[in-house]
Design goal:
Residues 363-397, 417-449 are annotated as: Disordered. The chain is 45% helix and 9% strand. It has 576 residues and is of the alpha+beta class. A four-stranded mixed beta sheet has the order 9-10-11-12, with helices on both faces. A two-stranded antiparallel sheet has the order 1-2. The two termini are 40 Å apart.
Length: 576
């Protein structure tokens, strides 16, 4: 058997790496073209002002955990080429993967609010993706250390009939790492591949001794401290892996990623038994060969596509990470954030908004397109006269006012723009049965572009209103802090504008715009409903109507499920 990379390479806690080093790097040397004296092979170390082993080691770990698209320090390998990540910096590009941008946003927000449970949740999700980059090759096949470790954990927990204690997890981490990094790794790998019982493991000690033991002996060894926790070779690796609060596996195990790891074990064992490769080998090969890393997000969906359960867990983990990361926006003041903060948000949102509904652009646009629609009688209804296609009038080209016009309009009519919230006079009637329309032809690209333009114009209108409202109330300091977050950061937050009431209370505004009247229905997304419930009375849905002829709006406050009649119009579907 041959092994070309250790089963672990952890030298730091991941929270330390991303909160301190990674944030400093992305806000500094990785986001600016270096001066001439730092464009050489050791330019990164020179740029951070430390040419010692520290920056080299941290940079190597950042690359191996998948947050760098290319190395920023040259590996100590014979014939290694100029580090491609640092070359990207020299060329004016940021060498970060999507995972790296996630890491920066979460790390930056944790600096501002280290105890925020949402951000801790986001860090745990990150850990479950980082840990998939830790692996080793045996007989030419890649294995993920986390899967093998979880397999051993499951067996011991099954024998004990309980979860492992913190000490037992720490000892098990040392045993698995020592075994996998030895010439006897087959005593663990063979049971893993065959899904059979593990007979034994080994401890390698600092004094040169090797101790073999049965897996079910481990609890007694840990309880009686027959071996000290600091007596193992690579004892820090076990600590960084299984520290009760900060270890990478501990974090992954308490996140949604634990379910992904369990699914991956089942799939990986099947593939290994058939002699097939690891699903993530493209990422692991890139890291092993010091090549540019395409990033795990760019390959996982395709790699997992043939395994619906696994794909579902990956998508749910990404959704969890995206949702938790959204909370980071509220931990950082956008008007003082560095440019890389905005860049990172756009990089994350460029691929993560897969759940965006048709109406999440802030418009309703329920009027059809200029196509023929033939009404067909519903079952049991009498047929009318021979139906004739009804030719709808061509849609009038949407002409939107300029930003200057809207600014002037807000200033002139500030006291007239906001109207009272409508009050329902009675419960809504049940929808009457209608004839079934034949299929229509819709230019979805054109419709989406029109919706987005209308939505952005309506958001700008409300954004300007919020600023003018606060200025008129003598709150210029608050007016300066109003943020049009959907414009700056992109969709997916569940609201478009962060503003303030005159008393300084923060409010979150979701803007829905229509060219029609105030009673026109509109779409809201599942995410918007969820965020409205989370924010409570700080959440406001601003309904802009008669736009742009005579724009007015009313505001609904609190949970959308309490203030709106919500009707299902589509479903998120998965293959069974």
């Amino acid at each position: 058997m041959t092994m070309t990379i250790n089963s672990q390479f952890l030298f730091f806690y991941i929270d330390e790496l991303i909160k301190h080093h990674w944030v400093d790097w992305l806000e500094g040397p990785l986001s600016e073209v270096p001066p001439r004296e730092h464009k050489g092979v050791r330019g990164f170390q020179g740029a951070v002002g430390d040419t010692g082993a520290g920056p080299r080691t941290r940079a190597g770990e950042a690359y191996q955990l998948g947050i760098l698209s290319g190395r920023i320090v040259q590996p100590r390998v014979a014939g290694a080429s100029f580090p491609s990540g640092w070359q990207a910096v020299v060329d004016g590009r940021v060498p970060s993967t999507k995972l790296g941008f996630y890491s920066y946003v979460i790390g930056k927000a944790l600096r501002e609010n280290p105890t925020d449970p949402n951000l801790v949740r986001a860090l745990d999700c990150l850990a479950s993706i980082f840990i998939l980059h830790i692996g080793f090759q045996s007989d030419g096949r890649w294995f993920n250390t986390a899967l093998v470790f979880q397999f051993a954990y499951n067996q011991l927990a099954s024998v004990l009939g309980r979860s492992l204690t913190d000490d037992e997890v720490r000892y098990l981490a040392a045993a698995v790492i020592n075994t996998l990094d030895s010439d006897e790794r087959e005593i663990l790998l063979e049971p893993y591949i065959a899904d059979q019982s593990i007979d034994g493991l080994r401890f390698d000690l600092n004094d040169g001794r090797t101790i073999h033991f049965d897996l079910n002996e481990l609890p007694d060894i840990a309880a009686e401290k027959r071996i000290g926790v600091n007596d193992f070779e690579k004892t820090k690796a076990a600590l960084f892996w299984a520290n009760p609060s900060r270890g990478i596996f501990t974090r992954a195990a308490r996140s949604r990623g634990s379910r992904l790891i369990q699914e991956l074990i089942n799939v990986d064992q099947q593939l290994a038994q058939k002699g097939e490769g690891n699903l993530l080998e493209e990422t692991l090969n890139a890291i092993q060969n010091n090549n540019d890393n395409p990033g795990i997000f760019s390959i996982a969906e395709e790699a997992f596509a043939d395994f619906p359960g696994l794909l579902r867990e990956w998508q749910d983990l990404e959704s969890e990470l995206f949702d938790a990361t959204n909370k980071a926006v509220e931990a950082v003041e956008l008007d003082t954030a560095p440019p890389i903060w905005i860049t990172s948000q756009h990089e994350i949102r460029g691929m993560a908004a897969a759940d965006t509904a048709a109406g999440e652009f802030g418009t309703e646009e329920l009027e059809g397109d200029s196509e023929e629609v033939e009404e067909v009688p519903a079952a049991g209804e009498e047929s009318p006269e021979p139906s004739k296609p009804v030719k709808k009038k061509p849609r009038k080209q949407l002409e939107l006012p300029s930003e200057e016009y809207l600014k002037d309009l807000v200033e002139r009519e500030l006291d007239e723009i906001s109207e009272a919230t409508p009050v329902a006079s009675s419960a809504p009637e049940a929808t009457k049965k209608k004839g079934k329309p034949r299929a229509t032809q819709t230019n979805f690209a054109e419709k989406e572009a029109r919706n987005r333009k209308l939505g952005e114009a309506g958001e700008f209108f409300v954004y300007q209103y919020e600023i003018r409202k606060l200025i008129a109330a003598g709150k210029e300091d608050l007016a300066k802090r109003v943020n049009w977050v959907s414009k700056e950061l992109g969709d997916g937050l569940g609201y478009d504008i962060r503003s303030f009431d005159p008393d300084g209370s923060e409010v979150f505004l979701e803007v829905k715009t229509t060219t029609s009247g105030r009673a026109t229905p509109f779409f809201v997304s599942n995410n918007e409903v969820a965020v409205s419930e989370e924010k409570g009375n700080a959440y406001r849905l601003v309904r802009v109507f008669n736009f742009p002829e005579k724009p007015r709006f009313f505001t609904l406050e609190g949970s959308l499920s309490d203030v709106l009649q919500l009707e299902a119009t589509s479903y998120r579907a998965r293959v069974l």
